[in-house]
Amino acid sequence: MRSLIRGAQEASPKSGARRDLRVDFFRGIALFCIFIDHVPGNWLGLLTLRNIALCDATEAFVLLAGYAAGLAYGATLDRRGFTFTAASLLRRVGTLYVAHIFLLVVFTAQVGFSAAALDTTAYLDELHLDVFAEQPYQALLQALLLRFQPAFLDILPLYIVLLLLLIPASPLLRHPAVLLGLSGAGYLVVRLLDLNLPGWTGGGWFFNPLAWQLLFFAGCALGYVPRAAGRRGTPPAVPFHPLLAAAAGLVLVVGAAAMLIAYADADSFAGLPENVALVLADVDKTGLHPFRLVSILALAYLLGHLVPFDAGWVRSRVAAPFVLMGQHGLPVFCTGIFLSFLGRLALEQAEGWLMQLAVNLAGLAVLVGVGAIAAWYRLREQAPVQRPAADALPDVAPSSTTPVQ
């Protein structure tokens, strides 16, 4: 497994920069947490980020996706220019779109078959797939247009739009202050005017790309590495300062306290001042509430300084499965969505600790296996073709159709 990771590093684009395995590790953790959170009744979900902070794995995934995009497409921009970078981004968008449609078809068939086998409509109603029974052709068309997104299938459309926004914004990677200024201004306008992309079934997108772009572009700004003397170093980190670290820690402690109090007593906010209670009760995910934004940035700041770029444990056998998952996020994510519904079905049959253990261990094993297969295939695809030497070819006996030298 570690050899696959080393091979992936050697096979990465030659930008002169070493791959940041911290990003792969934490992205792998985020992908596993997304799988856990999508399995109702999963006890392990009590320990994921969404229950101990005012943010969750989705924020982590988007921030790390922006970081990786800034690192990769920023290098492409400097080496090959804007046109090639835009083409590369469009190619990636096409890959994500095909993956989303394939996942939509498989997930819909999986849920629909289960609902028919168990003679229930609860799954279809809960996952917003009931419209396929009522208006199948219209639902399919709207799904192709990304205006209809069933539950659990709204992260890839968000990612698609974010990469499309990066195309015109990519030249601003060289000017991070301008990029973040424009992105922040757009975020404020979207929040104040309640703007969103339209959805087919009413309302807007569950993950509003017009708001989430700020978190994505923050990651891009952190990941971009300017060329210096023809080479690239490590991405510049936000400088460490004790007061900034204390403020970040305070943000996380307050968020954790709020989540624990709400979990212990859902009516505990009733005794707070009305304005305070309304703010805490309305930390929306759709528009990326400022509390959620600040929380994930605070967590990233602390982890970025607690885990240095060359941390040895990130290259250890324990971290290797998550690094491998993070390096191949698309197939791992799609597989996790499929597995999460299977995990739900299993826990509905028996929710004891043995089944809980089986669901989570089996899910992790399959996701790591998908990452390993993807890594192996990528290495085989990028390996140089071994052509036989001329003197190693077998002699061919002359014939009436073989010219004699």
TrEMBL record:
Keywords: Membrane, Transmembrane, Transmembrane helix. It holds the Pfam family OpgC_C. It comes from the Bacteria. The chain crosses the membrane at residues 21-40, 60-77, 97-118, 151-169, 176-193, 205-225, 237-264, 291-309, 330-347, 353-377. Signal peptide: none annotated. InterPro entries: UCP028704_OpgC (IPR014550). PANTHER family: BLL4819 PROTEIN (PTHR38592). This is OpgC domain-containing protein. It comes from Siccirubricoccus deserti.
